Amino acid sequence: MLEFGKSLFAYKQFIPHGHCYLWKPELVGLHIVSDSLIALAYYSIPITLLYFVRKRQDLPFNWVFLLFATFIVTCGTTHLMEIWTLWYPTYWLSGCLKAITAIVSLYTASELIPLVPKALALPSSAQLEAANLELEREISERKQAELALQEREAMLRQISDNLPNGAIYKVIREIDGSDRFSYMSAGIEKLMEVRAEDALKDATLIYRQFIPEDVPLLLAAVDESLRNLSVFDIKLQIQTPSARLKWLHFRSTPRQLQDGRMVWDGLVVDVTDLKCAEETLRKSEALLEESQQVARLGNWEFDIVTGKITWSKQLFDLLNRDPALLEPNYQENLQLYWLEDAGKLAQAIERAMSTGESYKLILRASPTYGSTIYIEGIGHTEFNAAGKVIRLYGTTQDVTERQVAINERKQAEEELRRSETLLATAQKIAQMGSWEWYLESQKQIWSAETFRIFGLNLTQSAPTQTAFLQMLHPEDRPVLQRHLLEAITNGNPFNLEYRIIRPDGSLRYLESRAEVAYDTQGQTIRLYGAILDITERKQAEIALKQTEIRYRAIVEDQTELIARYLPDGTLTFVNQAFAVYFGRSAEELIGSRNKSVIFEEDRQRVAQLIASISVDNPVVIVENRVVVANQVRWTQWHNRMLLDEQGCFIEFQSVGRDITTLKQIEEKLFQEKELAQVTLQSIGDAVITTDAFSKIQYLNPIAESLIGCTEASAQGLPLVEVFRIVNEITREPVQNPIDLALQSNQIVGLTNNAVLINQNNQEIAIENSAAPIRNREGQIIGAVMVFHDVTQNRKLSHQLSWQANHDGLTGLVNRQEFERRVEQALCFAKLDCQVHALCYLDLDHFKIVNDTCGHLAGDELLRQITGLLQEKIRKTDTLARLGGDEFGLLLIQCMPEQALRVTNDLLSCVQEFRFIWQEQVFSIGASIGLIGIDTNSESLTEIFSTADAACYTAKRRGRNRVYVAEADD
């Protein structure tokens, strides 16, 4: 290249061109002037062309002027070389310039040839003038259209501002994904209680009024409209600033602007009233459907012209027909019912079609649909203008229950007739008769058994009231008359025992019960009742009284409360102690019901217990309350069944005592126990109590929930079987705190990091304490443990601890934790003569990635480098991010040679790594400083300072290398 340059400017071996002109001044001058003028002209032409192109950059093919200017400049330069070679024969340079001129000339010619057709195709001045006129016309029309558009837009905005219940809006979705309103009509203030100008400034004033349940629907509708360029059409509910709930209907059409933004032009209308009307209609339809469902009622129509039958959904359900089969035709419809009922239905339909008469029938559904059901069919007719029946319509209702009730009533009437016959037979067997006395007519009606009881002939009529009273024992007659008078005048029913003397002179004991009947004015019109012959019972009672006399003296001396009573509770005997206790005489008590002294709330329970006495269970102990001197007291009774010699029941005997003081003590103990129980049930901690042998006695609900078993299933089990705890870190079993409390005879707490493994194999972090339970003598009789769930607290503590010791971006330990571990390694090195290694690693070219691609790329690079380095080190080693692009690596129990191999491997993997970000590929290097930690290491500060200096040395020596710190560094 140097030789070519020398030859290009060499001229000593050539003769100057002036020799050709024999150095004649006239000839040389002529050439100099001619070539100078030509060169001056050639150089002025490009300047003119450049000025022209600069001023008319709108011209097509303006590049050809620049190409032609280049050609002219090269031509002018050849003429200057002609003048130069007159004295200096640098013909190689002159030839090269001519060659360049030739190349430029040929290229210009080659470009001009295909340019000619294009230039000829350019419009002429006349064409351009016509085009300008057309353009002026289009501009004028466009201005007119813009004015019309502005007028229409103003009119549209005026209309939108005056909408009674709506507003017009325009929403723009920006390139960054944010939304804003570019227009909002004044109607928005009435709809959403927000001024239009405020909504244009802050779109959240609109968005935050949507109820939370509708926000996902809104976002989904916007995404669908944006994705498919479909109409945005949705009804949403809002809550205005005044807490009013409204339904709004949004409808808008999306369009995309040239800059890529999306615009929705739309209308929002208040449809609250419409929604309310729809909801009312829906509820009405639902109520009608539910009513028909409850009433088992269905609708039907029969178009006589087309023969089509239409059923409602309820009718399909009523007749157990699949809706997929569609409605039956006329003949199929008749086949749904029993044959004889189908005939009645066909006749009714034919009559309705011919006469227009409605019908109402009870039909039975065909047995093919299961058990027989009764259907009430009602049909009506519809006429056309000519008065001809064209349609039948009506209802079909399941009246099975009603029809069954009618059938059952008929059966009941028949059963009643049979029952009356059976009653007469039963009265005869039981020696019980019935009677009626009509007061107005004084007529008496007796049953056949009543006649037999009174010893009268069935053929004669019932006696008059006077004759009836004459048959009573003289001593009992006044009593019955008094009860009859009270029943007539006061309406008091009665139950009375009296004696009668039959016509044959025999004496009979009777029990008579009477009730009162009234007319519509409340006046007594009739007495009726029953009479029972109790002669045998009375005779037994007389014999029993004679027996009582023999041992009454014995029981009267007893201090216990003694009484005997019949199954109905009638007292037949009480001793003196019983009478004194209740403050009444024995005569007042005998004959009365024992329930009169029993506290009202205990009567039913006492009656149930007494009723349980039998031959197999002859004694029942009952505790109940009684009322004595207006005070409620507790008594305990031993109730026994008394039998005669044949083993037949006679009556009950009760021996009682007052246990009020005992009950008061029990109640106080119960209340204290209940208070303790409620307290344990209500506290938020879990509570377990055991006996002295650590066997479970009680679990409160919180303990049941945490342990995973119920109190019933855990009672009596050793605590260790259901309460298993381990150390959360070491997983070693932890001694049971109750055992510790029982052994140490003092309150104990659980060690840290305790975890309960419950019966469902769930692990629950707990904190607890246990204490022994002592009796009055100070002896240990059990233990109690209180514990609670601290799982969430412990998780939060672990999380906070992790965050305090780790880097949030890479998940590696941070500088603080790394320094703690290095300090620990230094201690082990000095105590146990261990050898460790510490590396400082600084990424090369990280700043280029960060500056070129941004912080997101830098963060991703750090995460990928972290994963890359972690694959190359042991689990016992510690990799930490010390800050920025600096990493620290602690190699535990690693000799210098091994540490150097590890660091070289790390360097190689970083060198081979390629980071790709948005189609850009980056090579990353690393500078690593390595230092050993052994017994000679001085301090933590010196170790970190030396490692940092070694890393800096590696970077200073050219980066992308490992430098091992020396003792004399």
TrEMBL record:
<keyword id="KW-0808">Transferase</keyword>
<feature type="domain" description="PAC">
    <location>
        <begin position="232"/>
        <end position="283"/>
    </location>
</feature>
<dbReference type="GO" id="GO:0005886">
    <property type="term" value="C:plasma membrane"/>
</dbReference>
<dbReference type="InterPro" id="IPR000160">
    <property type="entry name" value="GGDEF_dom"/>
</dbReference>
<keyword id="KW-0812">Transmembrane</keyword>
<keyword id="KW-0997">Cell inner membrane</keyword>
<dbReference type="Pfam" id="PF00990">
    <property type="entry name" value="GGDEF"/>
</dbReference>
<dbReference type="InterPro" id="IPR000014">
    <property type="entry name" value="PAS"/>
</dbReference>
<feature type="domain" description="PAC">
    <location>
        <begin position="615"/>
        <end position="671"/>
    </location>
</feature>
<keyword id="KW-0472">Membrane</keyword>
<feature type="domain" description="PAC">
    <location>
        <begin position="357"/>
        <end position="411"/>
    </location>
</feature>
<keyword id="KW-0175">Coiled coil</keyword>
<keyword id="KW-0677">Repeat</keyword>
<dbReference type="InterPro" id="IPR000700">
    <property type="entry name" value="PAS-assoc_C"/>
</dbReference>
<dbReference type="InterPro" id="IPR035965">
    <property type="entry name" value="PAS-like_dom_sf"/>
</dbReference>
<dbReference type="InterPro" id="IPR013655">
    <property type="entry name" value="PAS_fold_3"/>
</dbReference>
<dbReference type="InterPro" id="IPR013656">
    <property type="entry name" value="PAS_4"/>
</dbReference>
<feature type="domain" description="PAS">
    <location>
        <begin position="547"/>
        <end position="610"/>
    </location>
</feature>
<keyword id="KW-0547">Nucleotide-binding</keyword>
<keyword id="KW-1003">Cell membrane</keyword>
<dbReference type="Pfam" id="PF08447">
    <property type="entry name" value="PAS_3"/>
</dbReference>
<dbReference type="Pfam" id="PF25487">
    <property type="entry name" value="ETR1_N"/>
</dbReference>
<dbReference type="GO" id="GO:0006355">
    <property type="term" value="P:regulation of DNA-templated transcription"/>
</dbReference>
<dbReference type="GO" id="GO:0000166">
    <property type="term" value="F:nucleotide binding"/>
</dbReference>
<protein>
    <recommendedName>
        <fullName>Diguanylate cyclase</fullName>
    </recommendedName>
</protein>
<dbReference type="InterPro" id="IPR013767">
    <property type="entry name" value="PAS_fold"/>
</dbReference>
<dbReference type="InterPro" id="IPR052155">
    <property type="entry name" value="Biofilm_reg_signaling"/>
</dbReference>
<feature type="transmembrane region" description="Helical">
    <location>
        <begin position="32"/>
        <end position="53"/>
    </location>
</feature>
<dbReference type="Pfam" id="PF00989">
    <property type="entry name" value="PAS"/>
</dbReference>
<feature type="domain" description="PAS">
    <location>
        <begin position="672"/>
        <end position="745"/>
    </location>
</feature>
<feature type="domain" description="PAS">
    <location>
        <begin position="446"/>
        <end position="491"/>
    </location>
</feature>
<dbReference type="InterPro" id="IPR001610">
    <property type="entry name" value="PAC"/>
</dbReference>
<feature type="domain" description="GGDEF">
    <location>
        <begin position="834"/>
        <end position="967"/>
    </location>
</feature>
<feature type="coiled-coil region">
    <location>
        <begin position="402"/>
        <end position="429"/>
    </location>
</feature>
<dbReference type="InterPro" id="IPR043128">
    <property type="entry name" value="Rev_trsase/Diguanyl_cyclase"/>
</dbReference>
<feature type="transmembrane region" description="Helical">
    <location>
        <begin position="65"/>
        <end position="87"/>
    </location>
</feature>
<feature type="coiled-coil region">
    <location>
        <begin position="125"/>
        <end position="162"/>
    </location>
</feature>
<feature type="domain" description="PAC">
    <location>
        <begin position="750"/>
        <end position="802"/>
    </location>
</feature>
<dbReference type="GO" id="GO:0016740">
    <property type="term" value="F:transferase activity"/>
</dbReference>
<keyword id="KW-1133">Transmembrane helix</keyword>
<dbReference type="InterPro" id="IPR058544">
    <property type="entry name" value="ETR1_N"/>
</dbReference>
<dbReference type="InterPro" id="IPR029787">
    <property type="entry name" value="Nucleotide_cyclase"/>
</dbReference>
